[in-house]
Please model this.
Amino acid sequence: MKILSKLICILALATTAFAVDGWLNFSSPLPIKSAAPYGDGLLMATGGGVRYRTNTADDLYTTSNGLGDQSISAVVVSENEIFAVSDFGIISTMVNGYWQVLSRSYASNKVYVIPGMVCLSGSVLTIAFENRLSFFNLKTLTSIITVDRISDVSLTSESISAMKVRGDSLFVAVGQSLYVRKMDWENLESDVQLYNQDSWSVVKSASNKGYDIKDIAWKNGKLMTFPSEGMRIWDKDGETVVALDTFSVISSDAPLVTLRGHALEDSVLYEKKESVKIIKNDTIRHPYLQSKVCWVSLQPSGKAILAGPNDIFYYDGRKLSELIEYKKFAVGGAYELQVLPGGGVLAASKKGLFSRNFGNEWSEPKLALPSAIGNNTDALGHNMKTLSVIPDGTVFYHIWGQGYFMYSQWGESLETSFMATEGLCMDNILENPKTPYTVAVWTIPAPDNNGFLTTSGSNSGYSLIYVDLNGNISCANNIGSAMLGGPMVARIDKETGDWKVYVGTRKELTTDADGGLDVFTFPPPKQMGGELKKSKIQVKNYYGTPSTPLDMVYEPKTDYFWIVTASSLAYWNEEQDSLRTPLSTNGLTSASFTSIDVDSRGNLWVGTSTNGAYRLTPRVTNPDTLSVTHFTTWHGLLSDRVQDVAIDSLLGYVWFAHDNGVTRYTRNDLRSTEGNMTDAAREEVKVFPNPFRPNRHQYVLFNNISDDAVINIYNRGGRLVATLANERVVGGRAEWDGRMDNGNIVAPGVYQYIIRGKSKVKKGKLLVIH
Model:
């Protein structure tokens, strides 16, 4: 293929090319929905982007590489072009190594593309949706027509089950019937009968054979249909069959995965199934095997890449090896993210896996429990955020119903368990001693970072729980105003030294239940014998949101707490008697919220379940008015379904958790400059490259400076040639392209720079070489 060598080069450079972009996606490319043979491997449409897999190459394209959406239903390859179609019909093509969206016109219908049901002929893409069939012109980038009836069949009642193009004919199967229509692919827009359902003919010889047609193929020119999905190829070396066929006994004549007439009997290619029938009150169980494989890329050498919805194998002509694991992001879907104190992020998956990322690479996932128990559906169902981290690397975590767990080394090693079965002070929400069951929605570090705070749900009111680093647990039982404690924030009162713990409340288990805010004030546990004492805790309750808080953050500059419920945004401070909703949030209507975090400049970052993410900037003097910026997959989000948001102010990242991966968004203005150019600065001011070569380097970077810094650059004669200040200083950084304020490039030589902040002045020399 003409573009194969280009693609190989592109894939090799993909990580480098896009690492400098603002958006970077990490995805789990499962399930595999369809695949097309390409070069030595398979190009696969997956729930996490387009994956290209050979025995030696493994690369993934996502929205940060230009794809229109995270989840792709089909890929189509021609001699010179590659197309991808997303679940809702967003069409993308690869142009010079980068995916480019051609059309989003179908996406607004919110109708799913049937996986693999996209055909390319000439300049026309034929796309089968669940309730319609559409024809798209790749030259004009417009939809030609969409039909919902074929012959006597309504596609709104029964979906297309198979589709193939052969020459000027389009074959479409619906149930047990196969239909065909002649197509003038180059002039399809002039076909005035295209809308006419009677222009389709039934292929009687291939219809009504007692099974739903799932595949269409030709052997020696003869049309054949099959009851199972897959690929079937016939050549001079024999029959190649890769299909989801089922059979009772593995034998040489059974419908096994077959490559050029050679049946592969390796058990790894098949999974055990069982059908159950009840006949005259007797239960009859019939065990059988089913192939895991649907698609194959077969090489002239006899080697092959085989894939199914959840499997990829390499066949070297003698033995098989598994290739399914995507090592660049093995943790899978992440529902919760916690920023690490030294920069980077820790992710937790629904399956109970932890993985760390310090900017680019993810660590090998670790199980939260050896038994591989995770929060699974409870994670999203209850909007859980139970992962906490403190600076020494200790991690605290809760698994629904099981208890609490403390780890060392950023989650690498389980140190202490607090199980529901151990009779400890936390509540049993089932109130049955025989079935201990502890539930929590949130955990946070203690405000002194010497332990953790959480809650346990109870019908008598939730309990507040403190766990110290020695593994001691204490509870203020049934102190909460509702069944569950939700999002939590803790801080130390600057005047009294008391701890103040703020807990969103939930009257029922559901995330649309009524709720409010409880505020607890008490002396530090070390002043109470190392434990919580209910008698020492003051409690205040606040209300005002339409439903339970799902997430909450504290913004110290304005002293406001910001809260999201499923349908609203609210704010509160200590002077208010209730939670309030901002009056002006243009552009934020009809959003279903999941999460919130705040950056070092007071901007709020909000995740939603279907609408991507928002950045909200409140007026300093008036929290009732917010300016809104919207981010979606159009901009680079992996998915518009955002479960969690985490701000890394040290490295300048926003992290977004999705059901099948994570997005990292880089912005200079996210980096915290607190302490820069002071005695407490984490890093010294850096100026690089030095020497600076304008014909090689894009700019000189002044890093780790304060936001109020003014940089003056002088030539050897003491003349001021450039000044960098105000909007040119962002996130502790400023860039100089080597030009004077009049736009001319400076002459070669030695220049002096002076960086003035409120607390310090930094001077140095910079060599410019042409």
About this structure: Confidence is low (pLDDT under 50) at residues 4-21, 249-253.
